Amino acid sequence: MGDAAGLVEMAVAELRAGRAVIIPTDTVYGLAALPENVDLLFELKQRPPDKAVAILVAHPADAEQLFDPLPATRRLMEACWPGALTIVQDGHGVRCPDHPLVQTLAAAVGPIATTSANLSGQPTPHTAAEAADAFPAVQLVIDGGRLQAPASTVVEVTEDGLNILRQGAVDVEGIVG
């Protein structure tokens, strides 16, 4: 992965300039931008705008900038973060990944909008080279090696309970009683 501090510095510059970057996470390669530039992700990915993207945060407490966690959300955050669980509450899908580079990057720039680094409907790439091939307009691709972890579990939390939107790496059954 090279000089991590230098890579984070380059990624910060790209994101702050309004551009997207490709980053490794603890699950898959992500196409990332600052939340105010989320339209760029939809444009690059050729993804319908009605499909939400996740927001990555450096620390679990950073999710509280986006919503006031319900008790069930707080239990999931405490049990599963950092890790491969995306929690959807109040229309925000948030994840605190277990990846030092992503945590350092999010600590530097704040929450990061991200989606898997593949064109809409295409397979998720396992390597930085595959992700780069899918997005030739993206100037910075950070190589984190071959990533083959299952995608994150996505769970929506409401006052009425939990709704598993995608079963992935984390089993949330039994965490919230």
Description of the molecule:
The protein has 177 residues and is an alpha/beta fold. Helix 1 packs across helix 4. The model has no long low-confidence stretch (mean pLDDT 93).
Say how many strands there are: 9
In N-to-C order, the SSE pattern is HEEHEHEEHEHEEE
Radius of gyration: 15 Å
Question: In oligomeric terms, what are we looking at?
Answer: single chain
Q: What does the main sheet amount to?
A: 9 strands, mixed
Secondary structure tally, helices: 5
Q: What portion of residues is helical?
A: 25-40%
Mean pLDDT: 93
Given the helix and strand composition, which structural class is it? alpha/beta
What's the layout of helices and strands?
Blueprint: H1 4-16, E1 21-24, E2 29-33, H2 38-45, E3 54-56, H3 71-80, E4 85-89, E5 92-95, H4 100-109, E6 112-116, H5 128-134, E7 140-141, E8 153-158, E9 161-166
Parallel strand pairs: 1-7, 3-5, 4-8
Antiparallel strand pairs: 1-2, 2-6, 3-6, 4-5, 8-9
Helix pairs in contact: 1-4
Describe, in short, the structure shown.
The chain has 177 residues and is α/β, with parallel strands linked by helices.
